[in-house]
Design brief:
alpha+beta; 3-stranded antiparallel beta sheet
Length: 146
């Protein structure tokens, strides 16, 4: 399996500086990062490590859930996955990711609600990004759409 890379160039102090993160492997974009905007309610056109983790987690989870639905005998028609990653104070000092809330709504053929829930839980446990984030509480809200 390949290794994927990103690069960040940063200038200045934490509070007054800023940088750009480049998605080096795919070359699909370079995005501004800033600590004050990271900690603000309005990101103001910049991304953050938490948003990038949310993107990684939601996409990885969707792929894993698709596989787990198929393994359970179902057919995934459409899956919508949201990952909400929260940054908060670390009791040991500094900051830490305090939680990740996964929400998935799915249109699936061949599985009932219980089967979908079972596949959703299996995907939460089996997703490589979930595995990498085991030190963080990850919650799941999964439901079929009618």
């Amino acid at each position: 399996m390949p290794t994927r890379s990103a690069r960040t160039a940063w200038n200045g102090t934490l509070q007054e500086g800023g940088g750009q993160v480049e998605l080096s492997s795919s070359k699909v974009g370079t995005y501004d990062v800033s600590f004050p905007k990271r900690a603000a309610d309005d990101a103001g056109g910049t991304t953050s490590p938490e948003e990038l983790i949310a993107a990684a987690h939601s996409s990885c989870y969707a792929m894993q859930l698709s596989a787990d639905i198929a393994a359970a005998g179902g057919t995934p028609v459409a899956l919508e996955v949201t990952a909400d990653v929260t940054l908060g104070p670390d009791p040991a000092g500094g900051f830490r990711i305090t939680g990740i809330a996964l929400t998935v709504r799915g249109e699936v053929e061949g599985l009932d609600a219980a089967g979908f829930q079972q596949a959703a839980e299996a995907a939460k446990a089996g997703c490589p990004v979930s595995k990498a984030l085991t030190g963080t509480e990850i919650t799941l809200d999964a439901a079929l759409e009618s």
